[in-house]
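Audit log entry. Action: structure prediction of a protein-small molecule complex. Ligand: magnesium ion. The ligand was supplied as SMILES and no pocket hint was given, so placement is left entirely to the predictor. Protonation state taken as written. Sequence taken verbatim from the request; no trimming, no tag removal. Recorded inputs:
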Amino acid sequence: MVLTVTLNPCVDFLLRVEKFTPNDTNRVKACEKDAGGKGLNTSRVFAHLGGVTIATGFLGGPTAAFIRHVMDLEGVVDGFVTVKGETRTNFSVEDDSENPPTTFNQRGPEISADEWKRLVAKVETLSSKAEWVSLGGSLPPGVEKNAFYELAKIAQKQGVKVMIDADGEVLSEGLKANPDFIKPNGPEAARVLGRKLESDEDYLGAAKELYQRIGGGDKYVVISRGARGAIMACKDGVFVGTSPNIHPKSTIGSGDSMIAGMLWGHTNKMSAEEMLRYGLACGAATALTDGTAIGDKATIERLLPEAKVASA
Ligand SMILES: Nc1ncnc2c1ncn2[C@@H]1O[C@H](COP(=O)(O)OP(=O)(O)OP(=O)(O)O)[C@@H](O)[C@H]1O
Ligand SMILES: [Mg+2]
């Protein structure tokens, strides 16, 4: 079982218009609503692949019901802690132009000290049955920057492997727990290392350095590079992953899907190279879907033969 933690999930609400005009009335052609949040995305893809997964984190108010409905439909077991504040809704507006969407992201509900304690207790109980705990995404107000460090320690005490997907200070704090797997994208890896990453050599060096930083041994560092694939450092060496060649629609959630593919590979005792191939195929399958939608099993399996991994 894979336990995912999403501390600040959201409902993603997308409005489609012909041409977005600020300060005017915009006629809506279509609107789409989906459940969002990094851990939740990872759980959804892991469940699509046929795995057992529980998602936890904070949910509150009427928006929580919609997210629970999506989890129920997709076979993700609900392990969320109910909080007093309301789970946020993030809005975006997309028009027929080539311009990127206009987004409006809320901060999320304020989490009290008592609510945090309840989450910690929940992670402690649920992680005892897990093979992996996957911690991902932004933190809601009231939660300390070392949240992932604290949760990682709880999981590790029970012998459970930990994956962390975060940015900036939250990631650098999390790294102090020596997680078993991290998957920063290029800019996230550059920020945590404090230097620019440009050439392929820079990326190979960065993956090796991060692998050492989390303690080496039986651990995985994957730096994802969007359409350019990914670099992996692990005990078997350093690898270059090439993603299937696709025409992407929206890459939102590609990283979270890649994590699901890697965890699917690991829980099914695949080699590191096979794990990365699954990761690349899952990321690309999600890039093929519109908006916040995630890839399905048939697409992942169709793309798998096109995901290539070679020694660096
Ligand atoms: N345009 C694309 N074409 C093919 N594969 C893609 C594309 N975009 C993403 N992928 C696949 O998904 C993986 C993860 O994507 P990316 O590096 O964009 O993650 P990310 O920035 O963490 O995404 P997010 O945090 O939004 O989920 C890539 O390594 C690649 O395998
Ligand atoms: Mg990401």
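Audit: result stored. The chain is about 40% helix and 25% strand. The chain has a mean pLDDT of 97.
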